[in-house]
Design goal:
This protein is mainly α and about 400 residues long. About 80% of the residues lie in helices and about 0% in strands.
Length: about 400
C-alpha cells in the first residue's frame, strides 16, 4: 500500500490511544477523590467506607494484569479496548445510582478489570508496534495527556458536583469519557500495522517490520528466572512508593506552617511538572537511551526531596522541589515500560511488563496507608521523605544492576 503521500495511520493510532488514556485515566481515574466527601456525607458513611472501592479497584487491576497482557495479544484490539472502556465508563456511571456499599464496591471490580487493560498496558504495547522511530517521545506525550485530563476534568467535575450534585456529575463525566474515547477505538486503533497491510512509522527498506509476535527479546519464562526482572520489580516498587507521596503533599504543606491554599496550588504545580516530565523523559530516552533517562528521573527525585526538606516553610523552595518531584513521578508510567523493553526486548514485553504493573498496583493500593501510619507514629512527614531518599538511592543501584545482568540474557 502506498504510504509516502498520506498521513501514516500510526498517527491516528497515537491520537486515538492518547484520547482513550485522557478519558479513562485523566477524566475518570484521576477524579475519583472528588466524590469521596459528598458520597460519604449523603450516604452517612465514614470516609474509609467510601474509600474502600478505590482499594478494591486497584487490587482487581493488579491481579488482572497478567491476564490482560495475554488478551492484548490474542483479542481484536477494537473489541478488547471497547469492552474495557465500556466497563470503566459504565461502572463509574452506574455508581451514580447506587445506595449501598456492596453495590459501590462491586462497581470497583468492573472498573479494575477495564483499567487493567487501559492504565498501564495498552498504550506502550500498541504504540510500540506502530512506531519504529520517536516511540519514547510519543509514549511520553500520550501518557502526559492523562495528566492534562486530570487538570481539565477536576475543576469541571468539581463545578458539576456543586451545581448538580455528585450523582449527576459522575454520570455526565462517564458519558463524556465514553464518547471521547470510543470513535478512535472503533475506527482507528489496530494492534499492529500488518493488520492493515502497513509497516511501522519509521520503517526503512530492508528493515524487518514489526509485524507479528514473537519478536526479538527474552521470553517471559527466561525473564522470570533472571535476577534482572526482580530488580526491575523492586525498582517499580521504589518509584510507585515515591510517586504515592503526592497524596501527602497538601498535608505536608500545612504541617510545616504553610497555608492550605499553598498546599492546594502545590498540586497544580505537581501536575504540570508530571506532565512535562513525561514528555521530557520520553524525549531524553530517544536521545540518550532508557538507562540515562531512568537515572535522571531517580536523581531528580532525590534532588526534589532534599530541596523540599531544606526549604521547610519557604513557599518558593517548596514549589521548586515539587518540579523535580514531578519529573521522578513521571517515570512511573513512562520509564518503567521503557526500562522493561530496553532490558528484555519486544518479544514478550506485555507479559513481562504485567508482572511489574501488578506490583505497582498493589503498592499503590496501600501506599497512602503506609504514609498515614508513619505520620501517626512520628507526627511528621519528615521520616517519610527521608525514607524515599534512601529508596531512590537503592533504585539507582537496582536499575544499573538490572541493565548489567540483562546484557547477558539471550534474546531470541
Amino acid at each position: 500500500m502506498e504510504q509516502s503521500k498520506k498521513i501514516h495511520h500510526a498517527w491516528w493510532v497515537f491520537i486515538s490511544l492518547s484520547l482513550m488514556f485522557f478519558a479513562a485515566v485523566g477524566m475518570l481515574g484521576n477524579t475519583n477523590g472528588l466524590y469521596l466527601t459528598p458520597v460519604a456525607k449523603e450516604m452517612g458513611w465514614t470516609r474509609t467506607d467510601a474509600s474502600w472501592y478505590l482499594t478494591i479497584y486497584m487490587l482487581v487491576m493488579a491481579f488482572a494484569q497478567p491476564f490482560a497482557s495475554q488478551l492484548i495479544y490474542k483479542v481484536n484490539s477494537k473489541l478488547l479496548l471497547g469492552v474495557a472502556m465500556t466497563f470503566v465508563c459504565a461502572a463509574t456511571g452506574a455508581a451514580s445510582q447506587f445506595h449501598t456499599i456492596m453495590a459501590w464496591n462491586i462497581s470497583a471490580i468492573f472498573i479494575g478489570l477495564g483499567q487493567a487493560v487501559i492504565m498501564y498496558l495498552a498504550v506502550p504495547i500498541i504504540l510500540g508496534n506502530w512506531f519504529n522511530k520517536k516511540y519514547a517521545t510519543l509514549l511520553g506525550i500520550a501518557l502526559a495527556l492523562g495528566t492534562v485530563g486530570s487538570a481539565i476534568a477536576n475543576p469541571i467535575a468539581g463545578q458539576l458536583i456543586t451545581q448538580y450534585g455528585w450523582r449527576s456529575a459522575r454520570l455526565m463525566m462517564s458519558v463524556a469519557a465514553w464518547v471521547i474515547s470510543m470513535p478512535g477505538i472503533l475506527f482507528a486503533i489496530r494492534f499492529k500495522p500488518s493488520d492493515m497491510g502497513l509497516k511501522p512509522y519509521g520503517h526503512e527498506e530492508g528493515q524487518t517490520a514489526k509485524t507479528a509476535a514473537p519478536l526479538k527479546g527474552v521470553s517471559a519464562v527466561n525473564a522470570l528466572k533472571s535476577p534482572a526482572l526482580y530488580m526491575v520489580v523492586l525498582l517499580a516498587g521504589v518509584v510507585v512508593l515515591y510517586a504515592s507521596m503526592n497524596t501527602q503533599i497538601p498535608g505536608y504543606a500545612t504541617s510545616v506552617g504553610l497555608a492550605t491554599t499553598v498546599g492546594a496550588f502545590a498540586m497544580t504545580i505537581l501536575n504540570f511538572a508530571n506532565m512535562g516530565g513525561k514528555v521530557f523523559l520520553g524525549w531524553l530516552t530517544d536521545k540518550v537511551g532508557f538507562l540515562g533517562a531512568m537515572l535522571t528521573s531517580l536523581i531528580s527525585g532525590i534532588v526534589g526531596t532534599v530541596i523540599i526538606l531544606m526549604g521547610s516553610g519557604n513557599v518558593t523552595i517548596f514549589y521548586t522541589g515539587l518540579i523535580f518531584f514531578g519529573i521522578c513521578f513521571a517515570s512511573l508510567t513512562v520509564m518503567l515500560p521503557l526500562v522493561i523493553k530496553g532490558i528484555f526486548g519486544q518479544r514478550e514485553f506485555g507479559k513481562i511488563y504485567s508482572y511489574v504493573t501488578m506490583v505497582q498496583s498493589i503498592i499503590s493500593a496501600f501506599a497512602a496507608i503506609i504514609y498515614a501510619r508513619i505520620f501517626d507514629l512520628t507526627k511528621s512527614f519528615v521520616f517519610a521523605w527521608q525514607l524515599n531518599i534512601v529508596t531512590l538511592v537503592v533504585g539507582i543501584v537496582l536499575v544499573i544492576g538490572a541493565v548489567k545482568i540483562g546484557k547477558k540474557l539471550v534474546q531470541e
